[in-house]
Write a structure and sequence with these properties.
Number of strands: 20
Largest sheet: 5 strands, mixed
Radius of gyration: 30 Å
Strand content: 15-25%
Helix content: 25-40%
Shape: elongated
Length: 538
Amino acid sequence: MYTPKPSSRFVLFTLILLLLLSFLTPAISSELDLDDVDGDDMEGLEELIALDEEEDLQQKPEGAHHEKQSEAEFVSKAQRIVLELNNDNTKRAIDGNEYVLVLGYTPWCARSAELMPKFAVAATALKELGSPLLMAKIDAERYPKVASTLEIKGFPTLLLFVNGTSQPYTGGFSAEELVIWARKKTGVPIIRISSDAEARHFLKKHSMFVVGLFEKFEGSDYDEFTKAAEMDSEIQFVETNNAEIAKHLFPDFKPTSVFLGLVKSEPEKYTEYEGSFSTDGILQFLDDNKFPLTTVLTELNAAGVYSNTNKLQVLIIAEPDDFKKLVEPLQDIARKFKSKIMFIFVDIREENLAKPFLSMVGLEESKDSVVVSFNYSSSLKYLLESDTTPTSIEDFCSGLVSGTVSPYYKSQPIPDNKNMSILTVVGKTFDELILNSPENILLEIHTPWCITCETTSKQMEKLAKHFKGLDNLIFARIDASLNEHPKLQVDDYPTLLFYLADEKTNPIPLPTKSSTKELAALINNSLKEHNREIRDEL
């Protein structure tokens, strides 16, 4: 059955998702209990505001009402359709409606400000479609108790309440995507189109959709199509039994009794489904083709991008002007690797988006273009270490697909360890100083954010001083935040690993909560077991 692969398998990949998805923290589905909300219930739930066109006409000069309303006016009116929840009306709104989509926001949240106009436009569209869904919003700063009871914890948060029980929002964040998700969750997974007029009207409102042609709306193929429409929460499905209408919607359509195709507003506008009609096959087809050849990463589409982990992801992190020079050749490259690689542009000026990726390859301060790839199925990353040109990017991608590109591991510059009692190890010197060294080595693994690492570091200095002169014992340390190695997999800091001279593949972990004297004894015991010189006391 179609099940997307997990998006992360180790700490650094998880860190990316935490950083990029922290703007959307859906609350856990639960039964709503608002019995203790402050204030009396309203005598009746406030009706959604109907747009008072007559009043608007009276306020405008003669003839002005014939002018096309501005986008600001439209959004302003749309926002009045969304119910503002408060201490008094929240319980009545949730309990009195089968479907309620709630937006939790705060006035100071920039992401909330970006989403709210789209939410309002979606509310207008749903109202025009006769949707039973009530669209509502709650200012969590002004009404913190209500927001807490609704389990709104991050901003913005979207929750759908179905008969009083909440479920997280899982769709996209454009007005169109909000409408599609809401309609699918409230019982309209497929729109049936029966005339050219309906097709024209539909095309004005939808830039991306799946079209299915069936002689009869029944049978096994149609059942699989319907199941896929119900399971997908991002793309609008439409159906018709008229070949001319199918061609109107999908101009590349070739006459056949059963047909399915994906339409989107990208260079690859029309994509025909060529597999057998199965729910899993259709969903996989959409997952492979729903994104543009090159996706521009934003905070609003990040969730969708990171849930698409079935492909390698190649990110071009650059200034917009530099990226423009690559767009045309990159489209051609993307076509070649369409089924295997997802190409993503990240504006290097957007620190919230770019910096997490740059930090994963140790290039946080880079001002130049960076091309990096992530394979979420193997938890490996790759860096293009040559100039960013169309040829180098294509060669890089070919190597990724063929498996000839080596994984990338971060490393600081090689330091000068001359006359140092504790050697500094970096990613590039881990093999030489640790794995290939003929000596016994005690390695301290630390990070800058580790609270207890300083204590362990002081113990290491005392141990190095105590064992000074013992030629076959070396003390070393490595900063795991800036250095990586495939044979160094540590999740807890600080960590002490004792690499015996004749057993480098299985280091002995030493307890970091031990006293310096206890650590010295453990070192001596380990050396004694391997017939090494010992010193019994500190």
